Structures are given as structure tokens and as C-alpha cells.
Amino acid sequence: MPIEFLYLGIILVVAVIGFSVLKRPLHECMLAAFIVLLVVTNTWSQLGQFILDALVEPSMYAIIMFMISAELLSKTSIIDDCIAIILSVFGRIPGGAGFVAIIGSAYMGSLSGSGPGNVATTGVFTIPAMKKAGFPPHLAANVEAHASSMGNMIPPAGMIAVAFATLDKLYPNTYTISQYWMILWAIAIYFIIQRIVTLMVMCKFYKVRPMEKADIPGLRSSLKKGWRAIFLPIIVFAPFFVTNQFGDFFSTQLGEGASTFSNSILIFLPALIVICSILLSGKNVIKARSLKAMTKDITVSVKKVVPTASLVLFAYFISNLLETLKIENAIGEFFTSLNMGLLGLALLLPLFTAILGMFLPGSTQVKIFGGIIITILAAAGCNPLLACGMLPCICGAMHGVTPPYCACVYMGMGIAKAELAPTLKNNMIWITIHYLLSVLFILGLIPMFGLV
Q1: Would 450 be classed as within a structural domain?
Q2: Residue 57 belongs to what H/E stretch?
């Protein structure tokens, strides 16, 4: 067993002591783990480089910008309008409130890239609605938690930028960000369907009934009030669809600049989402928000994301330290020495990332281990683009629902007032199904649009 596994163990121990025993926030635990690793590995002399490398990492700023844009979105009516439309469509079927949670929270989670944050914002609406429709509290908590965490694997979630940066480093000028996002959306559709089917089975088991008619908004009135909200996902989706489908045209017109044009979409997309949300919210909302009020909104939003942004930053410190120690090479050589084929790797690697997800954020996992995971899977016969597409699924979506630090589940439990034991027991069912579907994807057994 490589000594590098000891370093991962140190991170886990520090996180357990800091979070569970000392009751400190997770970003403080991550900073403490970084300091302990500096001492254990005697790499103090490179401290400045670790910090500098993190501060100049473009993907880190993409993550933070998406978090800020999600906070700003809450100042508009766009989220409420989206949920009202979804509720008017699905509210009349058994378990309808759960379907609203899956679709609405997955969509909103993709805009924020924060699973726990999404549970906190949309869960306060969807969880009480599910409980009112007869959902047991532990089921309502898990439906919302697993829908929200899925946002981490659906564009434009900020963590996805880290995964593509890893792919681009391994295969420079081979794939575009638009190709990658189209693959991720295709994967996401399967996972959304998986959660809907799982929910349908559980609704049968728990005998969940439809929502009360009085609680369901009419479709006509919802569309009349919030029809503009329908255009937001189109605005987000359109640039990537166009550049993916007409890549040859852009290559002809822009030459070497075509790749830069595609990648630059990430730079302005968070601001575009916010601006479009304000415009789509209607004239009354725009008139009500003065320049001073908007400036205050931005200031408050930035303050709210500081703890999570600090967690991301400190996680990058750790990843830079571990990269210096060549931990990815050592662990990659360990997996290679096991002489597993694609089937063995498909079964083992999602388990490995699930364990890492107990204490490492998904973006950190991708930054440290993403390259070696893609390399190992590609060598075993997996398409590199698909291997990279699975990184947010087995790293980002699993972090936040994997015990003991399943922040999304705990957040849902708090809102639903659910008991720990039944919640974690039901949670394992959702995790297991997600894991099995991930294995099928890695094996290439699921047809994919846009995969070449």
C-alpha cells in the first residue's frame, strides 16, 4: 500500500476531529488539514507556491462566480416562477411534489453548483410540500438531497470547469468545452430519469398520494405569470449547442481562436445568467432594484459565499501540495498494478471516489485524481471524453450525500425533521443506484448522443 494513502488518512482524521469533535466549520478543518500536511511532509518551503498556484487557477474563480450568481438569482423571481410551472405540471400525480423536487432542484443546483446551498434554498419549499403529500420525512429529505447534489454534475455548475481543465491538459486542443457540456447534459438526462423511476417505486412502497389541489397552481396562471422563466435554460444551453453542432464553421472562420472562443463562454456565463434573470423577471422587478440596491445585493451575495469559497481555496492548497508529492502517480501506479480490466476499474473507481467524498469536496477530488482516473480508464478502453464526463458524477454528485459528512442529507434532515437512522438507511439505496448507473456508463453500456 503506497504511503500516499497515509496523507489521505491524515486529511480524514483532521476533518473528523475538527468537524465532529471540535465542531468547527468544514473550511477551517480543510485549512487545518493543509497545515498538518505541511508539517508531516516538510514542505513549508513551498508554501508560497501552493498558495500562488491556487490563486491563479481559473477554474477556482469559475466555481466562485457561479456561487455568487446563484445567490444573486435568489433576488429575482425566476426560481419561484420555475418551481411554480414544474409544480403545476407534476403536482397532480402521486408523488408529484417529489418530481418537482427532482427536476427543480437539479436545475437550480446546476446554476449554483452547491448541493447543500440548493437544499437550503429550494428544500424549504419542496420538503414541506412532499411531507404534506404523505412522504415520510426521511424520504423527503433524501429526494431533495440527491436532486440537489445532482446539480454538481449538470452544466453550468462551476465544478465542471475543473474537470474540463483536466481533460484539456491531457488532450490539448482535442476537445472543446461545448463538446464536453453536451456530453454532460446527455449523462444528466439518464440520472434524472433514474431518480424519477426510483421515486416512483418508493412512492408505491410508501403509498404517497398526489398533492392537495389547493396547493397546486394552475398551469395557465403559472405560465402567464412566469413564462419568461422558460427562456433561462434555453439561454444557458444555446451557446454550447451551437458551438458543438457547428464547430467546423467556427473553426473555419476563427482558425486557432475557435477553441478559445468556446472556452471563453465560461468566463461570461455567470454574469449572463444573472443579467438574463433580471431581464426575464419583468419590468416591475427591474424598476424596483435601484443601482444602490443591486450593489448591496452583490455585496451580500459575496459575503454569503465566503465560507464555501474558502473551502474551495483551502482544498486547492491541499491539492497543490499533494500534486507536488506526486500522489496521483503513486495511487495511479497502485491501481495499475492491480491489473484490472475496464470492468474491475468501473467497479472500483466509483467506490474510491465515494470514500473520498466522505471528506474531500468534489472539485478537490477532480483536481487531484481526475487526470489519473481519465488516464487509467482511457488505457482500459473507455472513451476519454466519457471518462471525464463521469468525474462530476462520481466525485461531485457523491460528495454531499456520502456518510459521515453528507451535508446535503443533513440539511434535508433538518428541514424535514427526519430521524437519522431511517434517513441514512434510505440514503444508501439512492447511493447504490447512482453507483450502479455510473458503472454502466463507464463500461459504455449506455448509448450517448454526441459521444465520438
Answers
A1: no
A2: none
User: Is 449 among the domain residues?
Assistant: no
Residue (of 298, 265, 326) closest to 62 by Cα position: 265
pLDDT digits (tens, 9 = 90+) for 31-48: 998 999 999 999 999 999
Summarised one tens digit per residue, pLDDT across range 377-388 is 998 899 999 999
The total domain count for the chain is 1
Backbone angles phi, psi at 236, to 5 degrees: -70, -40
Beta strands in 28-123 (DSSP E): none
In a 13 Å sphere around the CA of 4, the CA atoms on its Cβ side amount to 19
Q: pTM of the full predicted structure?
A: 0.70
- Non-local CB neighbours of 370 within 8 Å, separated by 6+ positions: 162, 163, 166, 388, 391, 395
| C-alpha radius of gyration, the chain, whole number | 22
What is the Cα–Cα distance from 47 to 395, expressed in whole angstroms? 27
Give Cα 202 distance to the centre of its chain. Answer: 24
Residue 221 near residue 273 (C-beta atoms within 8 A): no
CA dihedral sign of residues 174, 347, 429, 93: positive
Rounded distance, CA 34 to CA 416, Å?
A: 35
> Domain range for residue 109?
4-442
27 found inside a domain: yes
Could you count the other beta carbons within 10 Å of the beta carbon of residue 355? 14
Identity at 102, one-letter amino acid code: I
Cβ–Cβ contacts within 10 Å for residue 217, how many?
A: 16
Q: Please tell me the chain's helix, strand, coil percentages from 3-state DSSP, rounded to the nearest 5.
A: 80, 0, 20
Cell of 251: 473553426
Contact between residue 91 and residue 216 where contact means Cβ atoms under 8 Å apart: yes
Could you report how far apart the first and last alpha carbons of the chain are, in Å?
A: 37
In a domain, 396, yes or no: yes
**Amino acid at position 414, single letter:** G
